[in-house]
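Hi there. Long-time user, first ticket. I'm pasting a complex I've been working with (about 225 residues overall). I'd like to know whether the download I got is complete or cut off, because the file seemed smaller than I expected. Thanks.
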Amino acid sequence: DGGITQSPKYLFRKEGQNVTLSCEQNLNHDAMYWYRQDPGQGLRLIYYSQIVNDFQKGDIAEGYSVSREKKESFPLTVTSAQKNPTAFYLCASRKSTGELFFGEGSRLTVL
Amino acid sequence: AQTVTQSQPEMSVQEAETVTLSCTYDTSESNYYLFWYKQPPSRQMILVIRQEAYKQQNATENRFSVNFQKAAKSFSLKISDSQLGDTAMYFCAFMKLVVSRLTFGEGTQLTVNP
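Hi, the file is complete. Here it is re-exported in full:
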């Protein structure tokens, strides 16, 4: 089945460590996105990519990095510079008619 | 920058009744998309309904319909015959066509009571 796969579902990080969240899609969509969701709040855009080898910062890009070497993959690295990384992270890709399709999310907790 | 406002943090409705969730947005664009997404306790984001700004006709999907008032920049969601499975957080979202960034409101937690 076509869809978006995020891994891992749960991840624990010690302070000072970088961690990478994986996002893979087999929907053949050009654009991909990373959002952060904090408890009881809406989604905030971290980074997005409209085409391979290109990406743009969203509203809260500080402390995060991404790459887009393949159309299917858009990994997100949470660096040690991100001061409050505990959150729920959602990856999405965009259909040509505008709507986003989301993965099941990754929960990151800092120990 | 575009903003999306959902003024109702929480709502509740009895099963089988109708409920309307409010959303307003601010933009200077004339052509854009509007969406309602649902996030149940599983936290999976599910598309409920989509509206293109150039279409005057309100979108409908089964029990879900919208009231799109472009001049007022209002985009409310009506859920008819509410079901227990409709219990979720509902997010209104806006997308400019050129930049293709999706901006979300803060969400409305809807509870359907038996």
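A couple of notes from our side: Chain A has a mean pLDDT of 93. Chain A touches chain B through 24 residues (CB under 8 Å).
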